[in-house]
Amino acid sequence: MIAAVPPRPGREPGDVGLPARRPAPRRPPPRLVPPTLPARWFYALARVVLYALARALWQVTIEGRERVPSSGPFIVAPVHRSNIDTVLMAVVTRRRLCYLAKDSLWRWRPLGWLFSALGGFPVRRGMADREALRRSIQILESGQSLVVFPEGTRRSGPEVQELFEGAAYLSLRTGAPIVPIGIGGSEGALPRGAKLPSRTKVHMVVGNPIVPPRPAGPGGRVHRHEVRDMTAELRLRLQALFDRAQALSSTGERGGGRGLPGSSGRG
């Protein structure tokens, strides 16, 4: 016969003589490893191939490429209408860009190396939001640049949808500027549900970087109103860039010197 044991903190009243449950220890996030030389060379080669593919399939043209910072970390914030948008970001700049992806893609070592070489970083499922935030800060504080789709997922139509605040928070937290990009024509090139891409015209417009008023620094506090204000500014900039990109992708023009909102200075 088992004697009843008074329940201790952490036990249910019906537990008898059983050890108290302890929360599973939290694993530290995977270590941020800088890209190796072979990985950097592979990324450069893959970018050349993607650029040739994009030109052949979608006659991709880019306006404002010179607005991408030549040094230091930055956040690329494009509109998102198609799965090809991720590929198109590698065409915008020769600088290596980073992306976040679920860690299951790294289970097979050769495939994991491929994703890492292409700028991917693993994030565990189930803790994606919190870990993605930590990982993003690590990437930017290490001097690398990160792609963040502020609409969160693929959208449809000519209007920029309500934005998530992650891009603005990361910018204010690390001091990295946000580079907004409008992409016109990508939804027609590979619409949702399509298996194969279509040959159509894609035009991208790069806006001036939005520079945060002040970086919070490690452990610093980011004020809520600053995140809201920066997100609102980003949405306005993206809509103007998206409107122009859509207009030029439909006419087939290359773009030129026409002004854009916020194009008179950095931020």
List keywords for this structure.
alpha/beta; disordered N terminus; disordered C terminus; 7 helices; seven-stranded mixed beta sheet; 267 residues
What does this entry look like structurally?
With 267 residues, the chain is of the alpha/beta class. It has one domain (37-251): Glycerol-3-phosphate (1)-acyltransferase, CATH 3.40.1130.10. The chain has helices spanning 37-58, 84-92, 109-117, 128-141, 166-174, 186-189, 224-251, and strands spanning 61-63, 75-78, 97-102, 120-123, 145-147, 178-184, 203-206. A 7-stranded mixed beta sheet has the order 1-7-6-2-5-3-4, sandwiched between helices. The longest helix is centred in the C-terminal third of the chain and has 28 residues, at 224-251. It is globular and about 50 Å long. The model is unreliable at 1-19 and 257-267 (pLDDT under 50).
Number of domains: 1
Pattern of helices and strands: HEEHEHEHEHEHEH
Q: How are the strands ordered across the major sheet?
A: 1-7-6-2-5-3-4
Q: In CATH, what is the class?
A: Alpha Beta
User: Radius of gyration from the CA trace?
Assistant: 22 Å
Largest sheet: 7 strands, mixed
Query: Beta-strand level of the residues, as a percent range?
Result: 5-15%
- The separation of the N and C termini measures 75 Å
Question: Given the helix and strand composition, which structural class is it?
Answer: alpha/beta
